[in-house]
Design goal:
It is a single chain. By secondary structure, the chain is of the alpha+beta class. The chain has one domain. It is about 30% helix and about 25% strand. It has helices at about 15-30, 35-40, 60-65, 100-105, 130-135, 150-155, 175-180, 185-190; strands spanning about 1-5, 45, 55, 75-80, 85-95, 115-125, 160-170. Strands 1-6-7-5-4-3-2 form a seven-stranded antiparallel β-sheet. The longest helix has 16 residues, at about 15-30. It is globular. It starts with a strand and ends in a 7-residue tail after the last helix.
Length: about 200
């Protein structure tokens, strides 16, 4: 996992971060019914794989995020299982893999949020990327123990120096601003984060 460095807070950072939280909360409140998200073009990543947190991805919003940041159009909605359905807990924003920390800071202040990239991922032999990132074999996938190209090759896997671009989670329904941008929660949600 590659993380952005925390920066000292500039005077306007908290205000900017609060505006993003407010915009996100207003834009995604209608998706408390996960079926509304599906109707609006969000697709569940690996719905048959048990996860602590499910990403409902919108590929149009992902394409927009490559060029422009719009807090009302997150790349993903984040849900937890709730009975036969899902409970909305947050959103995920994305940015191009090559974006600098200075550019990321202009989107969301780095004094408030930590962007991350999944790096050094080894997919198991013969697996597609979706199946591979959620591998049950503890050596492989996003939470796998293999972190070098050589070790991945020896295990017969397929090594990816980086999977996707920059990502950051926001939990806009949390009453406390620190919890809304919680790095610890971001890293503990789901079963697919390598620490």
């Amino acid at each position: 996992m590659r993380m952005t460095e925390a920066r000292p807070a500039a005077p306007s950072d908290r205000r900017r971060a609060d505006e993003i939280v407010s915009a996100a909360r207003g834009a995604v409140a209608k998706y408390t019914d996960y079926r509304a998200a599906l109707r609006d073009g969000y697709e569940i990543l690996a719905p048959d794989v048990p996860q602590g947190m499910y990403h409902f991805n919108h590929f149009g919003n992902a394409a927009l995020a490559e060029r422009h940041f719009d807090p009302a159009r997150p790349t993903s909605l984040l849900y937890e299982r709730a009975g036969e359905g899902y409970r909305l807990i947050g959103v995920m924003y994305t940015a191009p893999a090559g974006m600098s920390e200075e550019e990321l800071d202009k989107r969301i202040p780095l004094s408030v949020a930590h962007w991350h990239q999944h790096v050094n991922v080894c997919l198991p032999p013969g697996a597609g990327w979706e199946e591979g990132i959620f591998s049950e074999d503890a050596r492989f996938g996003l939470s796998g123990s293999i972190e070098t190209a050589e070790a991945c090759r020896e295990a017969g896997g397929r090594f990816l120096p980086r999977l996707f671009g920059w990502m950051v989670h926001l939990y806009p329904f949390e009453p406390d601003a620190a919890d809304a941008w919680s790095h610890e929660r971001q890293m503990s949600d789901g079963r697919h984060h390598k620490h």
